[in-house]
Amino acid sequence: MKKIILFFIILLLLAFLGQIAVYLFYPDISQLKWQNPKKTAFMEFREKQWAQEGKRKKPHQIWVPLSQISPYAVKAVIIAEDDKFWRHEGFDYEAIQKALKKDLEKKAFSIGGSTISQQLAKNLFLTPKKSIVRKIKEAILTWRLERQLPKRRIIELYLNYAEWGDGIFGIEAAARRYFGKPAAELTAMEGAKLAAILPNPLKYHPLSETGYVAKRAERIYQIMVKRGIVIPEYDEVMTGPAKEPSPLEGEIQNPEAPIDISLP
Questions:
Q1: For residue range 66-93, what is the model confidence (pLDDT) as tens digits?
Q2: N vs C: which end of the chain shows fewer Cβ within 10 Å?
Q3: Alpha-carbon distance 58 to 44, whole Å?
Q4: CA distance 16 to 19
Q5: Quick check: is 14 in a domain?
């Protein structure tokens, strides 16, 4: 009897290892160097949720290259989600250690501290359901993403497939939905507000003027100011309402009249 039980335990262990090992080779991540997925695993997961709830919805996403995304927004997202993005190789071990410590204190499983690369792996190929198995799969896929794609491509994919609200995927769709403009025109504060809701885009709204989102967005913005990414005075001038030019600032009223440029 003991031998039979041991045999089934070994079979289950082999099946478990096989389920995980397949992610060492599948899917073909190299195609992501030049191909943009039409639909992600996260999108399919949401579609199933909507169907179960009787909702006839589809994910709304508009692809844009990284060059057409406001640098302010890109930097705000990196500051908020993964400040070591350009330096690490897929994992922020210090953040993982802190997250594990919190889990032990709360006696709950969450394992936070995910990098942008880890979040991209989850968004593209997995689901938001939390489990040890999913985290192992996520780690394998993250390792492969980091070794086959340049950082610029990873952040480009992430910004285009991150969830920014119910049915809203990608920063272009989010910018148009919340601010009525393309992602290329997002200001530093608008980028900070979008970055602020990424931890829970179904719960938070970027236009909230009080509470968690407002405080987090202001903190992200102030970090950009401190690092010299944003110069408030310049930002205010560039985003403020345009004024009518005076005759001296606009066109010369009489182009044939001589202009006195001598000093007094």
A1: 999 999 999 999 999 999 999 999 988 8
A2: C
A3: 9
A4: 5
A5: no
Q: What is the CATH number of the domain that holds 144?
A: 1.10.3810.10
Q: Which residues form the domain of 202?
A: 43-232
Decide: pTM greater than 0.85: no
* pLDDT for 235: 64
- pLDDT tens readout for residues 129-160: 888 888 999 999 999 999 999 999 999 999 99
Q: Quick count: other Cβ atoms within 10 Å of Cβ 141?
A: 24
- Smallest CA-to-CA distance from 158 within 242, 44, 80, 54 is with 80
Q: Do you find a cis peptide bond into 206, omega within 30 degrees of 0?
A: no
Provide the sign of the torsion angle of the four alpha carbons 25, 30, 35, 36, taken in this order. Answer: positive
The CA distance from 196 to 162, in Å, is: 13
